[in-house]
Amino acid sequence: MSQYSHVKYTTSPTPSVVSGYSGASRLTSHLPPPVNHRKDCLSATTKSYKYLRRLLKFNQMDFEFALWQMIYLLIAPQKVYRNFNYRKQTKSQFARDDPAFLVLLIVCLCVTSLGFAYVLGLRFLQSIGFIFYVIGVDCLLAGVIIASFFWAITNRFLRTNSLEPDIEWGYAFDVHLNAFFPPLMLLHCIQLFFYNWLISHTWFISRFLGNTFWLLGMSYYVYITFLGYNCIPHLKNTRLILIALPIIFLLYLVVTIIGWNATISFVNFYKYRVY
C-alpha cells in the first residue's frame, strides 16, 4: 500500500468559502430591486401631493439647477431632456419632483407681464389683473389643456405596445412648461423693445418683424414639445408632432403677405381683456 493511501482528497470548498458564498447570497437577496422594476412606486396622486406640498418650501428647491434648465432650453434643449431620462432611472418618474422650475417660470411671467403692462399703458390694478390672467390662463390653464391632450394622444396612439408604462400627466405638463419658456422670452420680453418704435407701425418691416417673432416662438414651442416626447424610448412616430412646423410657416407667409401684423392683434386682444 502506498504511503499516501491514507490521505483523502476532496473538491468541496472550505468552510470559509462556503460561508462567504452564503453570505453573498443573503446580501443579494436583501438588495432592493432596480428602481424601474419596483412594485412600490408612488401613485400619481401621491406624487402630485408631494410636488404641491413643496411649492412653499423654497429652502428645499434647487433653483440653481432650474435656472440651468432655463438657459439650456434657449441654447441646447436636448441637454435638458437627458436629465429627465436620468430621473426616470433614479426616481422611477420622468416628471419633475422639484417645483423650482415652475416657481422661476411664474417669476419670469410676473416680470415680463409688468413690462407688457407698461407698454400697454395699464394702471396699477389693471396690471395686477393682467399678471394673474397671464399666469392663470395663458400659462397654467392652457398648459393643463395641452398637457391633457398630449397625455391622451401619446398613451393611446404612440406607445409601441400596451405593455409599456403610461406617460405621466405630470411629465406632459413639464413638457409644456419647458416649451412655454422660450416663446415667453421672445414674445413677452425681447419683442417689447421693438414694439413702440417699430412693430406697432403699419410698415412692411413692422409686420415682418412682428410675425417673425411669432414664427420663432411657435416653432420653438413645437420643437421642444417634440424633443420632450421623442426622448421616451417606448414612444413611436413622435415626428408627427413636427408636422405643425410647415403649417406654422405657411400661416406666417400668408398673414405677412395679406398685411396682418399678429403682434398688433395680440396686443389689442390683451387690451380688450383688461379694459
Automatic annotation (TrEMBL):
<feature type="transmembrane region" description="Helical">
    <location>
        <begin position="241"/>
        <end position="270"/>
    </location>
</feature>
<dbReference type="GO" id="GO:0000139">
    <property type="term" value="C:Golgi membrane"/>
</dbReference>
<protein>
    <submittedName>
        <fullName>Blast:Protein unc-50 homolog</fullName>
    </submittedName>
</protein>
<dbReference type="InterPro" id="IPR007881">
    <property type="entry name" value="UNC-50"/>
</dbReference>
<feature type="transmembrane region" description="Helical">
    <location>
        <begin position="101"/>
        <end position="121"/>
    </location>
</feature>
<feature type="transmembrane region" description="Helical">
    <location>
        <begin position="211"/>
        <end position="229"/>
    </location>
</feature>
<keyword id="KW-1133">Transmembrane helix</keyword>
<feature type="transmembrane region" description="Helical">
    <location>
        <begin position="179"/>
        <end position="199"/>
    </location>
</feature>
<comment type="similarity">
    <text>Belongs to the unc-50 family.</text>
</comment>
<keyword id="KW-0472">Membrane</keyword>
<feature type="transmembrane region" description="Helical">
    <location>
        <begin position="128"/>
        <end position="153"/>
    </location>
</feature>
<keyword id="KW-0812">Transmembrane</keyword>
<dbReference type="Pfam" id="PF05216">
    <property type="entry name" value="UNC-50"/>
</dbReference>
